[in-house]
Amino acid sequence: MATKYINIEEPDLPIPVGHLIIGTRLPCKIFIKEANTFKVFLSKDSLHTKMSQNILSEKGISEVYINAEDSMTFDFYLAGNRASHQTLNGGGPVVFKEYAHRKEEYHQIDTALVAAGSSINFGLSVLDKFKFTPLVEASDTFPFVVDESVLDIDGDVVIKKSDVPRYLDYIAALQYPAKLPEGDKAKIRAVALRETSKIVLQNFLADPKSGETIKEMHTLVNDMIDCIMQDRDTIYTLLSLKGYDYYTYTHSVNVAALSVALGVAIDLPRDDLEKLGIGAMFHDVGKSRISHEILNKQGRLSDIEYTVIKNHVNEGEKIVSSHANFPCESLGAVLQHHEKLTGRGYPLGLSGAEISLFGRISAIADCYDALTTRRPYKVAYTPFYALSAISKDTGDYDADLLRTFIKMLGKMNM
Ligand SMILES: [Fe+2]
Ligand SMILES: [Fe+2]
Q1: Tens digits of per-residue pLDDT, 371-408?
Q2: Hey, where are the domains in the chain?
């Protein structure tokens, strides 16, 4: 039975109501917000029933709240209940399995680059509730002029992998209307840079032998450094919009942007910034050797699976070391982004001064991006909670760098 009383806590991690599974006991207190006041709606271990669900519907509530420290417990609750219940975004395990398989056939794009009036020669689809639905067809022979109504939809806009080269050409040929203010042009340029970097990295993950990609990435990282040095607020544009799911290439571009921005904030020399950016960009390439089944697995990993995941660091080192144009100084980001100053990290359990500067920077960027990323079975932390969570882990991260990082992201919509 739902309990209602005024609460003095201020839980601020929003959870879509759809994440509460009818017929299950709740792993933590669930709050609702009414008239700007948080109230406990369901206590820990109480049963979420059809009746409590109806109360939420009647109140027109689509989001409930939990305390940030309960987010991990809540993730396990979601993962543990997935096998026999509807998944949080609709659809059961079978639908999810099909989705996990099909997601590799698509590439998420940023609709900021396909504004109304743009003529595109690649088709668009939408990903919503684990389903891919075609939105528009287009080709070289039959281009499509985008109108507002096309993009006014729920879900992520994606394109077929086979259309990615056309999308890349489209980005390279983007024209800016003469009347567009300089600030807007700079923003579009940053989005285009981020989108191009994602595709270049995606190609490398599919074919990690390609030395050309590393050369190309040097140019992109330098463009990224220029953007951030010209205007530090560009970091907000360089970070990808949070999509429906996680992709290694999106995460890696975010980690590179955050690492470079932190490097700029601590006045690293230009040459070091480039090496740091390259290392961060390729920090997770070892994941290209892990099966999609393990990478996309919902719920707890077995010990063996966890060992396989952790091994991405060593695999990554092997991949990048085979390329002569990968700077050896950049290896710190690849090898040490999961090390913790307290010695609790992996693969070597290094501690304190044993961890390089690039390892320390990429560890903060990596953790922050992972926490703020949404996955089909995991809620995303808001920037505010991600920063609080990292700060709480006292001792794992470099305190001075962390302070600068928090200050750097201070203007982010928390
Ligand atoms: Fe990693
Ligand atoms: Fe990572």
Answers
A1: 888 776 667 788 888 888 888 866 899 999 999 999 99
A2: 5-85, 89-174, 176-408
- How far CA 19 is from CA of 76, 167, 301, 380, in Å, comes to 12, 35, 21, 13
Residue 257 to residue 259: CA distance in whole angstroms: 6
Contact yes or no for 377/19 (Cβ under 8 A): no
Q: From the CA of 251, how far away is ligand 1's center (Å)? A: 10
Q: Measured in angstroms, how far is the CA atom of residue 379 from the centroid of ligand 1?
A: 19
- What is the rounded average pLDDT of the residues 88-104? 64
- Check whether 210 has a pLDDT greater than 50: yes
Distance 124 CA to ligand 1 centre (A): 31
**CATH number, span 176-408:** 1.10.3210.10
C-beta atoms surrounding 402 within 10 Å: 20
Predicted confidence (pLDDT) per residue in 302-330, tens digit = 899 999 999 999 999 999 999 999 999 99
Q: Which ligand is nearest to the CA of 287?
A: 1
Beta-carbon count within 10 A of 206 CB: 12
